[in-house]
């Protein structure tokens, strides 16, 4: 089968508190490309996603995103430096740890409960 061209793929990430979630992603280091009252597109490096002003608890708490980075320790240091856990009380945040499947993963849940796997391929 011949390859069919594609330009971009975006996940629609749910947000319980749209304003709070937008600020959260800006704090993480994402750039807001555009947005309105219902949706906003964020970018970091070549990666983008759409944050939507939509929330169903069960959906949000079972939604996961995986972001592959060169060094998860840089992200961890950034989160500590900006006081992410203090700014967002109750935030689930776990340092980079080597997982049994061979990837180091930093786990982070956003204010809506969306679980982010920020992963690199460094060995612990």
Approximate strand percentage: 25-35%
Mean pLDDT: 94
CATH architecture: Roll
Strand order in the largest sheet: 1-4-3-2
Evaluate the radius of gyration. 15 Å
**Overall tally of structural domains:** 1
Task: Tell me the series of helices and strands, N- to C-terminal.
Answer: EHEEEHEHHEEE
Terminus-to-terminus distance: 41 Å
CATH H level, superfamily name: 2,3-Dihydroxybiphenyl 1,2-Dioxygenase, domain 1
* Unreliable residue runs: none
CATH fold description: 2,3-Dihydroxybiphenyl 1,2-Dioxygenase, domain 1
Name of the CATH first level: Alpha Beta
Please work out how many helical segments DSSP would assign. 4
Largest sheet: 4 strands, mixed
The secondary structure category is alpha/beta
How many β strands by DSSP? 8
> What is the overall silhouette?
globular
Describe this structure in words.
With 124 residues, the protein is an alpha/beta fold. The chain has one domain (12-53, 60-120): Roll (2,3-Dihydroxybiphenyl 1,2-Dioxygenase, domain 1). It has helices at 18-28, 57-60, 72-81, 84-87; strands at residues 12-14, 31-35, 39-44, 47-52, 64-68, 93-98, 104-109, 115-120. The strands form 2 sheets. A 4-stranded mixed sheet has the order 1-4-3-2, covered by helices on one side. A 4-stranded mixed sheet has the order 5-8-7-6, with helices on one face. A hairpin with a 2-residue loop joins strand 3 and strand 4 (47-52). The chain starts with 11 loop residues before the first strand and ends with a strand.
